[in-house]
Amino acid sequence: MSGSEDKTLFVLLRQVDGPRWCVIRQVLNDKKLSFFDRLATARPYDDAARVAINSAKKMGLTLVIQADGQMPRRFNYVTDAVRPGGVA
Fold it and tell me: 24 with 10: CB under 8 angstroms?
């Protein structure tokens, strides 16, 4: 299997500065996470979540969320679509 077949892209909604969030694409390559590109710069949660949801759907990628100081986890479209309690 070639190295390109081992790569997985996903959209990450990440808390970057207090109540501000950015949206990036990351690549998982051989169990290592790497920055791929930025889809939206730091903005309020509601705006960033909207960009992240739309981007993930359009690109057919998994959406992941990472609040400050927490491990990334799969985005829950029911509970995370509105600002998660305690992370904004």
Answer: no
C-alpha pair distances (Å), 18 with each of 25, 51, 86: 21, 19, 11
DSSP letters of 33-77? EEEEEEEEEEEEHHHHHHHHHHHHHHHT-EEEEE-TTS--EE--T
Q: Which residue has the tokens 């985005």?
A: 75
Please give the biggest Cα pair distance in the chain: 43
Type of residue numbered 71: M
pTM of the model: 0.83
Could you list the mean pLDDT of each consecutive 10-residue stretch along the chain, which spans 88 residues?
A: 64 94 94 92 95 97 92 92 60
Handedness of CA 5, 60, 27, 39 (dihedral sign): positive
Kind and range of the H or E element at 16?
strand 7-17
Amino acid at 49: A
Residue 8 has a CB neighbour count (10 Å cut-off) of 11
